[in-house]
Amino acid sequence: MQNEVLLMMPGPVPMPERVINAMSRQAINHRGEEFGGVYADCVRALKPFFGTENEIFLLSGSGTAAMEAAIGNVGVGRKIVSLVNGKFGERLAEIGGRYGDITAIESEWGHPLRLEALAEALENGAEVVTMVHNETSAGILNPAAEVGKLARKHDALFIMDGITSIGGDHVAADDWGADIAIVGSQKCFAAPAGLSAISVSDRAWERLSEKRPYYLDLKAYRKAGSKKPMETPYTPAVPLFFAFREACLIAEEEGLDNRIARHRRLADAVRAAAAAWGLKLLPVSDSLHSPSNTATAILYPDGISDSDLRSGVKKTGIQIAGGQDRLKGRIFRIGTMGAVGPSEVLATLASVQGTLQKLGYTPAADGVSAALEVLV
């Protein structure tokens, strides 16, 4: 549509017309066959993207609601250890502090997790581990498999935030030992904000806390979800379910492997452009950590302000993200998630490059050409 801004952020992201149109319909009974079929379609389509055979439930609430559901259902009064190397790992730790005895194992944002400290905490009796798989605030992909292995070795529950990786990158919740995994609707699935999905293992069901949140009580979701047709325990955001079902079907049609490959290729193109410009990525990579494939965090060169760059890019009809909290003014972030493709990425890179030049920064080379070589 005319005058629409292209959102090239780590969510929300542009929505396909099919998804938008799915919301434009009359209300229905959310205790009937039609809604139950919508819910069931979502669950069926989501399982391969989670990499799980566990039960999945949809919550009428954003990813943060799913974070709270995860911790509030199994973490009450327990020793929780949270791995933190970005804003969302910090959020999990803050939620954990509301429910249990929290220990936050912090790294500098964008730097590798301290797995040795996690092993020590588990040896000292930690019962629940939380970790963000894809920390978009710092553009780093964290080692879920290794964290899950440590948690399972010490018989601890593993809560994995896959909000910005499920549906866009490789996730294997069951193989990685993720007892609870979560995703948000407005990220890699390119649906409206306001829904989240959560998978729950048998081990997690066995260790449910006695006192759980009322609205986010997973036992209530399980009881309602077992009905024929499927239901939610409380009134769901029905139009969002229709939109999310359409987004899940689009992802299913594209295919898991194709979808993952597309996201990685687009991220590779952004990284190639940054290297050509002579700019560094924020995250520190090692054998276990790598840059995110759904959001690239790029460090600003000296003399370029966050507000000037992002406002300049927005004047071209494109919106990118800045840094959050302690990273504010230090980085800008380009999303490569959801329904975007080469044309959107190239347009974004051309806008960023042109704005950098207008602000007085001379790129080392043509980033758009470097990206194009990756994409063709």
What does this structure look like?
By secondary structure, the protein is of the alpha/beta class. It has two domains: 6-11 and 256-375, Aspartate Aminotransferase, domain 1 (Alpha-Beta Complex); 17-253, Type I PLP-dependent aspartate aminotransferase-like (Major domain) (Aspartate Aminotransferase, domain 2), CATH 3.40.640.10. Helix content is 42%, strand content 16%. The protein is built from 14 helices and 15 strands. The strands form four sheets. It has a seven-stranded mixed β-sheet, with helices on both faces. A three-stranded antiparallel β-sheet has the order 6-7-11. A hairpin with an 8-residue loop joins strand 14 and strand 15. Helix 2 (33-50) packs across helix 10 (238-254), helix 3 (63-74) packs parallel to helix 4 and helix 11 (256-277) runs antiparallel to helix 14 (367-375). The longest helix is centred in the C-terminal third of the chain and has 22 residues, at 256-277. The radius of gyration is 21 Å and the shape is globular. The model has no long low-confidence stretch (mean pLDDT 97).
Written as H for each helix and E for each strand, in order along the chain, the element string is: EHHEHEHEHEEEHEHEEHHHHEEHEEEHH
The CATH architecture of the largest domain can be given as: 3-Layer(aba) Sandwich
Termini separation comes to 27 Å
From the structure provided, what is the oligomeric state, counting identical versus distinct chains? Answer: single chain
**Low-pLDDT sequence parts:** none
Number of strands: 15
Which of globular, elongated, flat, extended, rod-shaped describes the shape? Answer: globular
Total number of distinct structural domains: 2
User: How much helix, percentage-wise, in residues?
Assistant: 40-55%
CATH class type of the largest domain: Alpha Beta
The CATH superfamily of the largest domain bears the name: Type I PLP-dependent aspartate aminotransferase-like (Major domain)
Lateral strand order in the biggest sheet: 2-10-9-8-5-3-4
CATH-defined topology of the largest domain? Aspartate Aminotransferase, domain 2
Strand content: 15-25%
The major pleated sheet works out as:
7 strands, mixed
Rg is: 21 Å
Mean pLDDT: 97
Q: Helix tally?
A: 14
Class from secondary-structure proportions = alpha/beta
